[in-house]
Amino acid sequence: MAEKKAYTSHASTIKESAAKQTSRLPLFEKDNYQWMIIGAVVVAIGMFIMAGGKNPDPNQFDTKLVYSTTRITIAPILILAGLMIEIYAIFKRPKAHQ
Fold this sequence. Notes:
Elements (H helix, E strand, L loop, with lengths): L9 H13 L7 H22 L11 H4 L2 H23 L7
């Protein structure tokens, strides 16, 4: 004889999964978002410093302005530091709720 398979309705499984999701904690907490903002600000400062200033005479190429230590060393270090802060903010575990 042919067996009859009992099929469950998709609506009941969707309701069960929705109930499980509402009881979950948020992915990030306030502390994580604060670290993300700090990281974004550090990256923005690094980009702003790398952009530098404007050459007083556009007909003259000034290597001291273009290849200054601030533009080629400090700004990239700030950008990488900001990205490291962002990685820390993403992987930081939330404190246990008591």
